[in-house]
């Protein structure tokens, strides 16, 4: 799966609180995306069997399938009853019916079969002994109160299942296509020409919702062959993972209505979580490069060529992977479909990848460069999953990082292939490495790889789809690839994929193959020893380099250093450079403290070149001063990525009290002479915390004055483009132009706010002509609405309602949260309760946007508390992450009063009503306590620093 994190955060690339895209990541970890809101009840044991015979088939000791019976192949029929057109509303029904015949092998003498089934009404169950060709007498049992296991137990009454026996289990069932975005669900959109509502059926199985579509053995290692037949209304197209069989669809008449029966070819051996089905009236655009590759969307969107970009880049990325991984994509078809409603950003279902519209449809002249990067990244991510995940699958969810870490890491390589000028291989540092370092410094973080027994319930599983799994996973793979060499890395993963195709792995299998590649190249690195320290331990180290005595050592980096004296050690690949040195970088593997005579120097030393390592670096004071001096004199002598690193490390070291807060602030002084995106982005991201802490206090004035002073040169650097609503050529320059505008406008630089209002008003006066460049829309809409009143807001709201382009709607939806008018913000909050105004999948992020606005902070928090029951009911079991809501809405909390409110909220709602948000609430309390302390300790110093620095001339 792919989250919407980058997208959401990048959407925010402009705000009145100086928030740019990564400012939100790490905070919005995975909004409305990865996390399933599932009740976090303790695992309940499945029922005791009622048999008195002494057959060794007791119930499984945990939530896991016992493995006494395994599936070999399924034959599944599904018939969704919905009409796509609302004009049939009198008959409109969202029922689906189906049946499944699964061939089983019995592994040991057994009396019962456990499989998964959830929210299905079972109509018939039949167990057949295939060897004897007789039906067996069975009873079945679904323990409704046991909401976590979702077990359907089939008990054999008068017989015993034989070891090695072949059986087939037939189930007939029916279910409802809810609009809950999980399992088999319905989605809807408006047909542009007629203005009519249209329905479609779609699916989202990962991680544990295939069981809502048909009874099945819903675990990733229970791979089987699937032969699916869809019975659907005439005039619709059904898609599933594999292509239609050669014979094609048949028309049949059922109860006087005609239906299409579409049979699909039997799949390869695959896991249930990557199954997919869609039934819609969508049309498709074929790839110009390869037969069988199609991009599907609403007919309006295909006609308007919104599918062009995706259709153009898919095959080049796919073919790059085929080459890189040394294995052909095994299907002769690949469908990518843009769904109006989807929980995650996208889902990698084998052969039928589903996307949110904003993750697939690029609208020339409307979508921004950020949208384009997001689309390319998500496509590359999902395509990488066709190998990492679909072909080779983790044995159990505790190692889901083997899917997500690889897909995230490989996506940067894939995008680099199709958009080489973007330099995304550098951007991985901002988008993934920096984000993961931030989250992994918290005591609430978790190791990349959890113990299998700790991941049992659907909510345990859903909880793993987070920044650690995605971004830290990608970051440590990147580190490993540099450490053992890119070629060895490539050889290792090739043989790994090849050995385990169509089956399952644990991470040791990966280490073994990479080790083989290292050995074959006559190198000495020990892959497993090094990587174990990164995947099995929580957190990461700060490496201290002291140029006075040449000592280098590491310790566990935690924001709250006092928490506990951790003795964790990592095997840290270190790459360093030295001022003025023409020598090759000095590289070594740090475990225990060492003394490097080369580092004893009165010239600066810089460690973690290009930030390939997953750690922070601290130095003695003198070396810090020399580095800052270098930044102020000739910044370009330090690599761009490392300029960003110095800022990011300094700010985080200051928060953890390794260095003074003034040293961190000092790293931003040189920025008036830097126009590069990565350093600016690091600064903007880190200063965001200062803004959150101080935008309600007297620090804010001097801070704004300082930021204004620093950003004016950058604003002016891009001004010629900006005032004409144009953008520079380079990808990262385009991003930094957005930073320039956001920071300048947010800090009251009048040229900027006037520019924003005037462009917006030109559009308002003649809304048939859009004068604002797509890249600049988010920040300009936001700043114009912030500066304006009801008229500006209403205009944007109307545009929001009338736009059918998802990315445009997202920009407007965000910008609407920027107003300073309390009553408008309050009314906007109310709109999130009405799915006709704000789609369900967008409600939580809209509330979060409002909370991000200092004027909306208190309103949003009151609203969340007042509507808590609504949210927990509406989104119970849905994909909306209530934890994220709590997390985000309380981000600014830094007073005793707010702390009391949090504690009261916790006391009022027990664990049950908080569900998955209870951990988030605990974290919010911990964070608020830390904020209170931080503000107390730093406010004076920070105020003085900003006062002083905002005065000095440059
Ligand atoms: C409703 O659906 C039926 C069957 O698909 C179709 O024949 C009929 O024309 C539809 N009715 C309307 C009003 O569109
Ligand atoms: C659909 O509705 C029409 C008119 O209300 C009715 O005649 C027809 O029998 C219905 N079809 C089904 C399958 O219920
Ligand atoms: C399963 O459903 C399909 C479609 O309704 C039907 O044709 C088939 O006979 C059913 N299978 C069994 C074994 O009843
Ligand atoms: C740090 O951790 C300690 C021990 O758990 C805790 O008491 C303290 O409140 C924490 N400090 C901050 C600033 O979070
Ligand atoms: Zn993914």
From TrEMBL:
Aminopeptidase N-like N-terminal domain segment(s): 71-274
Matching PANTHER family: AMINOPEPTIDASE, PROTEASE M1 ZINC METALLOPROTEASE
Entry-linked InterPro entries: Aminopeptidase_N-like_N, Aminopeptidase_N-like_N_sf, ERAP1-like_C_dom, M1_APN-typ, Peptidase_M1, Peptidase_M1_aminopeptidases, Peptidase_M1_dom, Peptidase_M4/M1_CTD_sf
Name of encoding gene: anpeplb
Cofactor annotation remark: Binds 1 zinc ion per subunit.
Protein residues bound to Zn(2+): 381, 385, 404
Name of this protein: Aminopeptidase
Enzyme class label: hydrolase
UniProt family annotation: Belongs to the peptidase M1 family.
TM regions (residue ranges): 12-34
Record key words, sorted: Aminopeptidase, Angiogenesis, Differentiation, Glycoprotein, Hydrolase, Membrane, Metal-binding, Metalloprotease, Protease, Signal-anchor, Sulfation, Transmembrane, Transmembrane helix, Zinc
Catalytic center residues: 382 (proton acceptor)
Pfam family, one: ERAP1_C
Lineage of origin: Eukaryota, Metazoa, Chordata, Craniata, Vertebrata
Gene Ontology CC annotation, any one: plasma membrane
EC number: 3.4.11.-
